[in-house]
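FYI - complex with adenosine-5'-triphosphate, inputs then prediction.
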Amino acid sequence: MIEIEAITKRYGDTTVVDDVSMTIAPHTITVIVGTSGSGKTTLMRMINRLVEPSEGTIRIDGADNHAIPGHELRRRIGYAIQGHGLFPHRTVAQNIATVPTLLGWERRRIDAKVEELLSLFQLDAAAFGPRYPHELSGGQQQRVGVARALAAEPNILLMDEPFGALDPVIRAKAQDDLLAIQRHFGTTIVLVTHDMEEAFHLADKIAVMDKGKIVQYAAPEEMLVNPATDFVETLIGAGERPFRLLSVGTTGEAAEAGTADGEPLAADASQRDALSALLWSGRDALPVVGADGEPIGRVTLAGLARRAARPQ
Ligand SMILES: Nc1ncnc2c1ncn2[C@@H]1O[C@H](COP(=O)(O)OP(=O)(O)OP(=O)(O)O)[C@@H](O)[C@H]1O
């Protein structure tokens, strides 16, 4: 659990984070969005004390983060940034092993961790471990950057625009990998992004910042249905709202009893994907199957339309 209490950061006369309080529950993904310069990065960096606050307290699992030496904190909290920040003269394996080596882990444990992470990120350890960062694609470098941030098994992972430099296809893949990895390790993730699509895809809770303040901190569905201010509504993109509502729910949740013809949809696909498949196939209904391939019902255009409509 991360408890941020009345935290303020000033540079000279300028207040860049203004009396922010928020609690981040363990094992969740919190996404911070907002306009450029609204203080997102500064707020996040006060968690691992890359930036020292002017006022206020941040507690990590109950302990004031000021009571923990900065270097210790940054070892315990993973940090991944856009452009990955890999060491160019170290191999992929050495990069991932950086913090475990600092912590004095045994060689065998380090090797096992490197292999586990590379395979979780779908990189073959034998092929990629010995390579240098310049021998990887941008997307692969980025995955190694996140793998490195996770190597010491941190409870908390801070991510600053981690997928900002990736093309849309690789980016979507990287987001899905991150969700799978977060479930695997139960890591508490705080992520800053400019991309609302990404925020709605990943977040358990979204914090919207404007001029150093949090203007709304809520679950995606709640924010869509009840945006706190005009600013939040603009940021969400009012025209996108029905589609975003569908993108935060799964097809399984929208499944109704009954059967339908056509290519089945996976229950864990988003309702937005289901809508797209329905429109594209020209059908009113499509079958839904569970992870085991067994039918669990059908999803209908009318059912999705009800879910995308303003709640009454
Ligand atoms: N070391 C510093 N000294 C002075 N001002 C700073 C410093 N670091 C950040 N700022 C200012 O604080 C404000 C908030 O910066 P921050 O990087 O937190 O914003 P952000 O919301 O992450 O922006 P972006 O989305 O553009 O990355 C900006 O106006 C920035 O210029």
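Residues 11, 16, 34, 36-42 surround adenosine-5'-triphosphate (CB under 6 Å). The mean pLDDT is 90.
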